[in-house]
Predict the structure.
Amino acid sequence: MHQIMWARWVEVAVEHELEARQAFKELMSRAHSDPLLVEFRASLVALTAAAHTIEALYGDIKYLIPIQPRQDKRHQQLRHSFRVAFGIPDALDQRFASELAWLFTRRDSAAHPYTESAPTEQHPAGINTGVENSYFNAITSGRAVDLAMDLLAVSQSPPKPHTRWIERWAEERAPYHSGVVKELLARLQAHSL
């Protein structure tokens, strides 16, 4: 049995984004910060799982395209590879470039945190919190999951597939898009903030 890892990672991302959304709603409705830690932990997992979804998507297609020149940053490598593989148009490519840079900067701050104290920052709920809570919350986890879902949508129906191998890959992965991804999108819509 073979697992399609991007499908498993996006499930993890959505489950934790939904948990973060629930904690955010509780945080907004109460005067205390008990849900803040729950939201932070769920968002930390959702955001990093969204990054892992994108990494796994790349892993699933990287041998179907020519070897790409090495890039300085991981997000640049991913963007370039997706652009080549799926034939992403320039305007969408620019958006993905910006969003991938943002996501992988956040992911890196989770994996390689700055260990010194920093001034408080405002949380989307309007309270001052540690900088980590302003980086990892329901809003940022939603942004990360949205990016993963957008890349999965492009991979489902590539605008201009690089080769027949990419077309065939998209056809073979169609059940994951019509099953797993579609169901997760419905869950997200049903539990919007």
Summary: Residues 34-61 form the longest helix (28 residues). Strands lie at 121-122, 128-129.
